[in-house]
């Protein structure tokens, strides 16, 4: 038998990603929910990010929700809902891709381990409403809007939910984690646990990912959007910014990702590029739940130190948390769920959930 270390990395990772089991597709219910929220946003009209938020914003917008039932009953988990939230230039497909879902779909994996999930297209994404991308779709309003979705989820008032849930596990990726950070900072009692993937407070080098108005990149899909909705220009740019080295991901996954890609708002992007000292996000001094920070070892956005050891310092932002842990997933870039090592991410997270009673 050939030791793994003698195999080329790509064939080892391909071997690793072959699903150990297949997961049945869960029963899911989609809906367009009407959600009202208000917040104080930042005035971006000068083209830079001011120190404080000053502009009250409120509104009612439609959001596409997708509630999926567990495919097995695990007694300790029937009262737990995972709220799963994608990042910039993705929609709900990030957490539930059609491409080889046994390997890559967080939603399928969660269903197969007894969790109900509430997946979505965030405000400004996919089939949800697209309000003004500069004045409305910014972290303060994003968080207030998400808080309302979480309240609906906890109360069991989303289409498909069998009833109320006692525990909420927020699972974010990238800007979805940034929004989760804002939620537990502003509304510290809403969720029990926050799993923040692809996110740290100190931004690294965002690589070569180039954004342009989405309507110029793909007039067929995005021609109706204002130019403040942007997206990555092509697959090469996406690979450079979001993926690890060649061989750590399936080129067919990158092609699927490129075909499915969504947009991002300039109001959200301003919080990546314009922040003081490169700090992205806020402390959550009053959050008393559990926090798990997880990133790929070659995440250009998150890793400011080799092997992403800087994730350890995320603990300082959650001083009242019941627990803080971090994990680094090998051979994965920013979109760690879409790499060959995604099953390691899922196993690592399941172990964490088990250890913390979720
Ligand atoms: C921002 O808010 C802080 C805290 O209220 C205040 O000390 C500071 O002066 C404000 N900055 C500006 C530019 O208004
Ligand atoms: C990064 O992690 C790998 C695998 O765990 C280890 O072999 C390597 O020495 C680490 N590198 C650094 C710079 O810590």
UniProtKB/TrEMBL annotation:
GO terms for molecular function: hydrolase activity. It comes from the Eukaryota. InterPro entries: AB_hydrolase_1, AB_hydrolase_fold. Residues 83-339 form the AB hydrolase-1 domain. Residues 1-22 form the signal peptide. Keywords: Hydrolase, Signal. The keyword Mitochondrion does not apply. The keyword Amino-acid biosynthesis does not apply. This is Alpha/beta-hydrolase. It comes from Exidia glandulosa HHB12029.
